Amino acid sequence: MSTRKATSMDVLLVEDSAGDVRLTQEAFRNSNLNIRFHVAVDGTEAMAFLSRTGAYADAPRPDLILLDLNLPKMDGREVLARIKANDSLKLIPTVILTTSDAEDDIIFSYQLQANCYLTKPVHLDAFDGLVKSISEFWLNTVKLPQQSHFRKS
Amino acid sequence: MGTTEEKNLTVEVLLVEDNPGDVRLMQEVFGKTNARVRIHVASDGVEAMAFLRQWGDYAACPRPDLILLDLNLPKMDGREVLALIKEDAGLKSIPTVVLTISDAKADIKKSYQLAANCYLTKPVQLDEFERLVTSINDFWLTKVKLPQRAQGDHA
User: Fold this and answer.
1) Beta strands of A25-143 (E only): which ranges?
2) Is residue B149 one of the residues assigned to a domain?
3) FRET label pair with B31: which of A57, A76, B39, B101, CA 20 to 30 Å apart?
4) What is the pLDDT of residues B42-83, one digit of tens each?
């Protein structure tokens, strides 16, 4: 169907839990896609990465953002609002991946134009399965906004 | 408090699509894979907006949990429908998946700019189309947390 496997995709994971970072990376690694993984451990770092400031001057523009809501320094809701208020960054699909099941967080995230909202399962295998679905759906099924560097099949 | 799944047993999907063959295929695939799904069809953009705003004959229609939107539609274009949904404070939180034959970069970019939740192209091959509809069901209707329907929706 697609030849994206030949090209690398950049995924920015905004997550402060080291355990969840590792689980997510491992699940993506098993997906058969050529993924370059970038981690920001708080909201301020995520915005520096996305706006390529300071140490992130050479950061690539991510193809997909996975965003936790509860983050140190700058909250995930604020990061989401900033991404979606920026004419260039708003095009990057931003997937909320959080432990929060609160209806307020769900509705608020969609109102801020999160592309989708997912809750982290408690069990390891379910977490792994969810990350694989994210990878399969967003990186192998959806048409992403920047595909100029992908060859047509 | 119960989960969304417990409270709303049916999942209302609005399919905005003018091609009867595609409508039938999607109805069949959803029918086979998810007994909770109720498909509503709007065959042009004007009808889609009437459905979403519950105008006239659509007064008793439910608020959809998910919208599948074609881009090339009669009367009102899908791009215009998307823009209207995403600038309406009451409708913008409904996940709107663009599903179209257009592979044009300009359409993909424009759709994300207008805050489409994702963009998918319709495969030409029947089995691939079926697989795509199955993956929409698997991802959007079993994995994703959808916003709860507005209060007062007793449809």
Assistant:
1) 35-40, 64-67, 94-98, 116-119
2) no
3) B101
4) 999 999 999 999 999 999 999 999 999 999 999 999 999 999
Note whether A116 contacts B140, CB cutoff 8 Å. yes
Answer whether residue B51 is part of any domain: yes
Residue A37: count of CB within 10 angstroms of its CB: 16
A4-140, which class in CATH? alpha beta
Q: Treating both helix axes as pointing N-terminal to C-terminal, what angle do B20-33 and B126-136 enclose, rounded to 10 degrees?
A: 50
Tell me how far apart the alpha carbons of residues A122 and A107 are, in angstroms, rounded to a whole number: 22
Looking at residue B155, its pLDDT comes to: 36
Give, for all 153 residues of chain A, the pLDDT tens digit.
Answer: 444 445 789 999 999 999 999 999 998 887 778 899 999 999 999 999 999 999 999 999 999 999 999 999 999 999 999 999 999 999 999 999 999 999 999 999 999 999 999 999 999 999 999 999 999 999 999 999 975 444 333
Chain A: closest CA distance from residue B118 (Å): 7
Residue at A95: amino acid letter: V
Neighboring chain B residues of A111 at a CB cutoff of 8 Å:
89, 92-93
Q: Based on the structure, what is the number of domains in chain B?
A: 1
Contact criterion met (CB below 8 Å) for B61 and B153: no
| Strand ordering across the sheet containing B66-69 | B37-42, B11-16, B66-69, B96-100, B118-121
In a domain, B96, yes or no: yes
Q: What is the CATH number of the domain that holds B43?
A: 3.40.50.2300
pLDDT higher than 80, residue B153:
no
Sign of CA dihedral A98, A99, A100, A106: positive
ipTM for the complex? 0.89
Determine contact: B150 vs chain A, CB below 8 A: no
> Which structural domain, as residue segments, surrounds residue B30?
8-142
